Amino acid sequence: MPGPLLPTLHTPRLTIRPLIPADAPAFTAYHNDPEIARYQGWDMPYPLEQAEVHAREMQVDPSLREDWSTLMLEGAGGSVLGNLSLRLTGHRTAEVGFTLARAHWGQGYAAEGLSALLAWLFTQADLHRVHASLDPRNVRSAALLKRVDLRFEGCSVQAYWHRDGWTDDAHYALLQSEWQEKHDT
Fold first, then answer.
1. Is the pLDDT of residue 122 over 80?
2. What CATH number is associated with residue 109?
3. Which of 11, 31, 144, 170 has the fewest CB atoms within 10 Å, counting from its CB?
4. Is residue 63 very low, low, confident or very high in pLDDT (cuts 50, 70, 90)?
């Protein structure tokens, strides 16, 4: 059973909204940047057709669901900066991820967008737990998860095959009660 409809959120610098077909070229471009894809699980090259299919699927079912959904990070003037990804993983639990075009790294956009998404997931979607996992060599993404208050829970050693070798999988999570404790002031 699908969860709630995905939101359109606004922060001081961003509009966070579901992926639409017009986003497919920009989405494809940054997904094909080797530095961005280095620790990501998608196949390279990432085809435009795959982004177009995903965007059409998002139009048909724009809800929080077990399949990955995509929310775009849109900056001033409608420019696509990157995206957030999310999927239900169990009763009141979801996994999140993020991808940001390299030109926008280091400016706080991913943290701003992920913080807004976490607020929505814990208040409007009423989730109990949100988690993320990543290759522990991806230190910038690990730092971002800590910055938005996800705690490191451990690492599964050589847990999955990634492109040319076995890779560890670092686990992070945040409970609704932990989020509420930090935000109910």
1. yes
2. 3.40.630.30
3. 11
4. very high
User: Is residue 104, in this structure, part of any structural domain at all?
Assistant: yes
Q: Which two tokens stand for residue 46?
A: 């990432």
Separation of alpha carbons 84 and 170, rounded Å: 19
DSSP string, 63-110: B--SS-EEEEEE-GGG-EEEEEEEEEEETTEEEEEEEE-GGGTTSSHH
Classify residue 169: in a domain, yes or no: no
- Looking at the domain assignment, is residue 165 inside a domain? no
Q: How far apart are CA 46 and CA 22, in angstroms?
A: 17
pLDDT in tens, 125-164: 999 999 999 999 999 999 999 999 999 999 999 998 988 8
CA distance 141 to 39: 10
Question: Domain total for the chain?
Answer: 1
Q: Tokens 């993020």 appear where?
A: 98
Question: 144-169 as b/e, with b when 16 or more CB fall inside 10 Å?
Answer: bbeebbbeeeeeeeeeeeeeeeebbb
**What DSSP element (H or E) covers 167?**
strand 165-175
pLDDT value at 184 more than 90: no
At 58, phi and psi to the nearest 5? -65, -30
Q: What is the mean pLDDT of residues 42-67?
A: 95
- Check residue 18 and give its pLDDT: 97
> What is the pLDDT averaged over residues 48-73?
96
Domain that holds residue 17: 9-132
